[in-house]
Amino acid sequence: MAGLSCSLGAWFPRRRGLGLLLGGLSGRRGARSGCERREERVYLKDATGRYISPFHDVPLYAVNDQVLFNMVVEVPRWTNAKMEIATKDPLNPIKQDMKKGNLRYVTNIFPYKGYIWNYGALPQTWEDPHHKDKTTNCCGDNDPIDVCDIGSKLCSCGEVIQVKPLAALALIDEGEMDWKIIAINKEDPDSDKFNNIDDIRKYRPGYLEATLNWFRLYKIPDGKPENQFGFNGEFKDQAFAIDVIKSTHESWQSLIYNKTERGEINCKNVSITDSPFHCSQEEAEAIVRSVTPALQARDLSSIPGRAKPWASFLTPHA
Q1: Superfamily of domain 2-314 in the CATH hierarchy
Q2: Phi and psi of 286, rounded to 5°?
Q3: Which of 172, 226, 274, 288 is deepest in the core (most CB within 10 A)?
Q4: How far apart are CA 297 and CA 91, in angstroms?
Q5: 312's torsion region: left (phi>0), alpha (psi -120 to 50) or beta?
Q6: In this structure, are residues 17 and 4 in contact, taking their beta carbons and an 8 Å threshold?
Q7: What is the pLDDT of residues 28-68, one digit of tens each?
Q8: Angle value at C-alpha 83, between 285 and 308, nearest 5 degrees
């Protein structure tokens, strides 16, 4: 299975042999994300081979850079499976969301196909449901903050990339604050051209309007009303976006040190040694073994368009 390694701030895959680990792969995945089955999980490893939590153990800041952040990709662009970090599960694997026993997919909203960006989350952030946002008067949605990567690279489920935030959109989802950070992958060929919201309008004309329209409409096929937005749907600039990120990072710090009500969120981690939720690597391995008892791996590296020579392995969940 392909884990994640960290060397001088750069994340890249390593071959391993258990579970499904897809960090760092850059190949084209096809119409679906490649891991959309109810019994499958995406676990991450670090450079030393430790299982880690994408929510708590992947650092927010990339190499102590105050403008560059790590992003955990949950949903590759153009795919429909609603993959997300399982905040209530130990080690917070990525898995497909379910509702009433059914796997969840987003419906194609004309003229869009699936998610129109690489979609994911910033680790070590948390939108606190007990904290009322001073700008929108809404409480957080109890999840890590969401990110939309507008870069040209098609990423993979579980990949960790470094992104530069450019703007923020205040989505209000059924009364809850659900910030969307608009960012670009630093590996994008045009990354140096993007430094603020005006650069999106200049080099990706129509992308902000499409993003607003997508978030407004995507729940309607499920019988829900249009989503609402703070600031009348106005995108806020980079400085505002970074302030939002820093605020949610502070909320996460209260969470990981047990200084606030966490509800059902699982804060188990292997890297924050002074956290009351810190666990040993032996315990982390036992968690993964408990959901992957049969070491029957299916090699996914032969899927057309997959990045090589890195291989990923899929292990069913009992």
Answers
A1: Inorganic pyrophosphatase (3.90.80.10)
A2: -65, -35
A3: 288
A4: 21
A5: beta
A6: no
A7: 232 344 444 667 889 999 888 899 999 999 999 998 777 99
A8: 70
